[in-house]
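In the lab's daily routine, each protein ends up as an entry in a very long ledger. A line of letters takes care of the sequence, but it says nothing directly about the fold. The fold becomes a row of whole numbers, each drawn from a learned catalogue of backbone shapes. The protein below has been through that process, and both of its lines are reproduced in full:
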Amino acid sequence: LPEQMRRMNDIGALMEQRLPGLPDHHILLVNRQHPLVEALLNLESGSVVIADGASSPSHQLAVDLAQHLYDLARLAVGGLEPTELGGFQARATMLMSSLLQRGT
């Protein structure tokens, strides 16, 4: 959401009403040269195909990390709705657990 539209939406929400006509879509710009994105791409490229069609642990971790980065980007601009915060917290907890299990 462009900054001005997001602010208008926030003001409308503070007045307990959503302004009509504001789009719910957004654009995500990804810097492919950022170290986090490069590491994520390297992790995904190292995943393997498993015979039964299941995802490899590296692939699943890459998917979970990509979702987390997307959630953080939306959170930074106020794009996560209050109803989505519970899912964000649950995914963050599962991701941390997964990373801790890989580290031991």
In short: Helices lie at 3-14, 35-45, 57-76, 85-103. Residues 1-25 form one domain.
